[in-house]
Amino acid sequence: MAKALRVDPRDSVATLLDDAQAGAVVTVGDSELTLSDDIGRGHKVALASIAAGDPLLKYGYPIGTATQAIAAGAHVHSHNLKTALEGTLAYRFDPVDTVAAPRASAATFEGYVRADGSVGTRNEIWILSTVGCVARTAERIAAKAAALVGDAVDGVHAFTHPHGCSQLGQDLEGTRTIIASLACHPNAGGVLIVGLGCEENQIKALLATIPTARRPLIRTLTTQASGDEIAEGCALVAELAPLARAPRQTVGLDTLVLGVKCGGSDGLSGLTANPLVGRMSDQVTAAGGRVLVTEIPEIFGAEQMLMNRAASGGVFDRIVDVVNDFKRYFLDHGETVSENPSPGNVAGGITTLEEKSLGAVQKAGRAAVADVIGYGARIRVDGLTLLEAPGNDAVSSTALAAAGATAILFTTGRGTPLGFPVPTIKIASNTDLAKRKPGWIDFDAGAVLEDGFAATEAALLARILQVASGAETAAERNGEREIAIWKRGVTL
Questions:
Q1: Cβ–Cβ < 8 Å for 307, 314
Q2: Contact (CB, 8 A) for 378 and 257
Q3: Hey, how many other C-beta atoms are within 10 angstroms of the C-beta on 94?
Q4: Residue 473 half-sphere exposure, CB side, CA atoms within 13 Å?
Q5: Burial class (CB in 10 A: 0-12, 13-18, 19+), 379
């Protein structure tokens, strides 16, 4: 017999855990329901009759409005449910209780302790390009230099992008800030910045934004001024290698900085993978560590839940500002704020942005929101921080890394091969995906449905600690390491 999961007693829909055909009887808790439609895994079924115009509830909150009468047992999706989201809103701070105060944790990993007290999960040399013109040059230097330095570091990696020239104002500042923040990352024991020479994103201006204490571990190369940029770049990496060499040391969970992200979600993401990651977030923040959550457009419809967890009125005001600013960004470009979910999300059972957001915010756990930082900024306080960035997987994950995340937990119901500068642990929302794509997926959150949250949580924490101590992720094994920068302005 098929099963469906009702998340909250107030919900008017439940989510199918397996494909089921019309006429099938499904169990929903202690009740049974006969389906009137074929319904796929991750899709919703109406638990009672719903009138046209009525709100539908999932997670205990509205996920949209019925566009027609819906009978009990019917499929609830895009054909009979629409978003209720509109433009910017006035919000009211209604504080709620959050998780308990920080407590000691026995969990440890083997990390790289830096001079400034930060801790890396990798000890690599990063080659960062200022401009797209030298992207291939940076990659060629990384490939040759890796053979020269051998096992002195964990690897030599080039992170390139197509920007840095023909940019102005805030757009140029965003590119520069991301590169500067990556240059300060604790996973980079040394950094080579490669420029062309004539671009707007000048090396001198970029260096001026990097703390003085970090600069001894940074080298620069202007290729227009070099006779043999490949040879010179390799020599500079070789110069950095002995400076970067460092041993792993046993450190506590309080030194970990987690970035949390979801991409290619399905109807089970908010039931398995995202709440599981939320439990990891709570473990890290409770131990005194740091967690970064982003994807501002993917909290629309669930933003009040985060706002009510603001640590202060000032933090609440900053959450309101970043949410409404992002809504205006959409509206100013002639787009609706509800222009989501993606086709893959819809195929996986997610109907409206409210539904997607209510599932997505669970990655942030239940801790208080301690800080809000802008795009490209670096994390500055312990606890949970909200980071300004769009929902795009590559752009937001790059921002998480630049902000200081030393590992990223990336949940997915559809799968993706993407990887980013820091170890990216791919967590499948369903067991089928984990079995079909073992070359992409690091952990099966579908186990929650069989083993429960406690056992699966313990297994995921163990996996995170292994990766933080040096175990490769699937993306690392596949050589999937890249960045993407948020392009917001005109191009000259």
A1: no
A2: no
A3: 9
A4: 30
A5: buried
Q: What is the sign, positive or negative, of the torsion defined by CA atoms of 486, 274, 475, 17?
A: negative
Amino acid 77 reads: H
Coil, helix or strand for 164?
coil
Contact predicate 210/185, CB 8 Å: no
Residues pairing with 15 in the sheet: 5, 44
Residue 414 and residue 255: Cα distance in Å, rounded? 31
Q: Is the domain defined by 124-245 classed in CATH 3.40.50?
A: yes
Collapsing DSSP to helix, strand or coil, 194 comes out as strand
Q: From the CA atom positions of the chain, what is the Rg in Å?
A: 23
- pLDDT (tens, 9 = 90+) of the chain, 492 residues, equals 899 999 999 999 999 999 999 999 999 999 999 999 999 999 999 999 999 999 999 999 999 999 999 999 999 999 999 999 988 888 999 998 887 666 778 999 999 999 999 999 999 999 999 999 999 999 999 999 999 999 999 999 999 999 999 999 999 999 999 999 999 999 999 999 999 999 999 999 999 999 999 999 999 999 999 999 999 999 999 999 999 999 999 999 999 999 999 999 999 999 999 999 999 999 999 999 999 999 999 999 999 999 999 999 999 999 999 999 999 999 998 988 887 788 989 999 999 999 999 999 999 999 999 999 999 999 999 999 999 999 999 999 999 999 999 999 999 999 999 999 999 999 999 999 999 999 999 999 999 999 999 999 999 999 999 999 999 999 999 999 999 999 988 888
Spatial separation of the C-alpha atoms in residues 123 and 424, rounded to whole Å: 15
Q: Which CATH number fits domain 2-82: 3.60.70.12, 3.30.420.10, 2.30.130.110, 3.30.870.10?
A: 2.30.130.110
What residues pair up with 222 in beta bridges, in sequence order?
Answer: 195
Bond before 343 cis per omega within 30 degrees: no
Report which of 462, 101, 98, 97 is spatially closest to residue 287, judged by C-alpha positions.
Answer: 101
3-state secondary structure of 452: helix
Q: Would you give the distance in Å from CA 283 to the centre of its chain?
A: 17
Maximum separation of any 2 CA atoms in the chain, in Å? 76
Burial of 170 (0-12, 13-18, 19+ CB in 10 A): exposed
Please tell me whether residue 173 adopts helix, strand or coil conformation.
helix
